[in-house]
Amino acid sequence: MTDVAAVVRGTIAPQLDRALAASRANPLPAAPSSLRAEPAHSAQLFGLLLGAAIEAAPAVAATPGTGADTTPARPADAPSASRPAAADPAAATVVELLDAYRSGTTTPSAVLAALAPHWTSDDVWSDAVLRLVDGAEAAAAESTRRWADDEARPLEGIPFAVKDIIDVAATIVTSGSLQTGDRVAPADATVVARLRAAGAIPVFTAATTEFACGGPHNARYGAVRNPWDPERWTGGSSTGSGSALAARIVPLALGSDTGGSIRVPSALCGTTGIKPTYGLVPRTGVASLSWTLDHVGPMARSAEDLALVLAVIAGSDGEDPTTFTAVPLIEAAPERVEELRIGVPRGWFTERVDTAVLDAHAAATEQFRALGAALVPIEFDDLESIDAECWTVFYGELAANQEANAATADLFDAGTRARFDVSFLPTAADYLRALRRRPLVQAAMVARMDEAGVDVVLTPGIGATAPRLDDLTMSVDGERFNLHDVIPRNTRLFDYVGFPALMMPAGTAPDGLPVGVQLVARPWDDRLVLSAAAAFQRVTTHHRLVPPSSAVRGPTDQ
What we know:
alpha/beta, eleven-stranded mixed beta sheet, 15 strands, 16 helices
């Protein structure tokens, strides 16, 4: 078997060397300069864009995060969900389960009883489940009572998994690391508390790569196999969330995204996930990897599901200083697609991308055209150097977050150790240059979208299907690449700029594995990517495809 540690080390250091060389060759103008390049200018820009977004789409009347009912009415032409949810809860989405509860064809207690055996099985998806959360059965009984008494909250009785860097009160949460021991979370993270308040039920903690940045072969828990092919990886770092959703052992999961960690498993496992606008969802109670890149968001199987959940968890909690009090409208409104102008980039986003992924992207583009959207060519400048700055920020903040573990660095897995070993290479000037460049890049990308009159941008997803676990490689038209050279290319940029980005399945490759496409919008226009994705999923079935290793039994095309 390939020496995984050597592969990781041999890839990470050259990447960072190239990134630093590119950044140092392109310094910002020396003082005096009129550039709006202080890091605080990012917050200023986002504040202005938030005001514009709220003016364009009035804010929801309910205070976000309070469990107020923000559930949209089901469109008249939407398919009924009662039959699949009642017959096989594992096949149901969040929206379908809520419909089934509402109609009385099943109950939260019945759904929990049907799903729970899968959480302790030895099937492929067992890699995803770390620890069960106490109290789920009692919570399901309470939710069943609330539905019977017409007291249901927006997500009443929906089971969900929680990535193992997100705190769940009185539960062991380890960040997938030997460094943390059996740490017991003192309280719920804000996102978990808000989901509980809306009636959702945390049922298990889901595997992650170590501190959300380690390698596929986790030193504490092992690798998480992909339900589509156990010899492949799920993608990271929300490994367990992606696997559990694909395997249909839970309808909803929480993930985090610093370089693509919600969107990568979504693409490689055939599910749907959104990295929200930076500052929309509080990160309180979530282990920090790179605090100016970290995002927390929902992972599910449909854009409609994501919209329901995002509306519940969005908004300031008074603790996370990056969040804003005001929240723009969050919805998945498929009818909006006829008003959208969708930007279609080439260049960076289509390079080092397998033909199967490009074909899926082309087909999705034509599907949006058929739905009434206008397709507009668009390109963004200097993406290679911007990508280099993403690495610099990531490593600078990783070093600051993990320096206390230097004395016990041997406990890190190979992936984390390789990143940690090189994380001190950027100088203070390197790090601050990358932070200073960010508001300039953000403003330039917004301006380019404004010039083109583009509402959202549609890019290919991950450049190839899931990597092999034995050698950590991916095939792009027959040429093998280390996964680090393919996976983050189309995702990491949007963590750096903080724009909302949604990944959804868009087909399967000749090897039978899923491929995805990505929708991106301006900050605070999360509703536009959700609405576009919902329209696409209304007329396609990619998100309904079920892997061979799944909890679904019988037909899957309900």
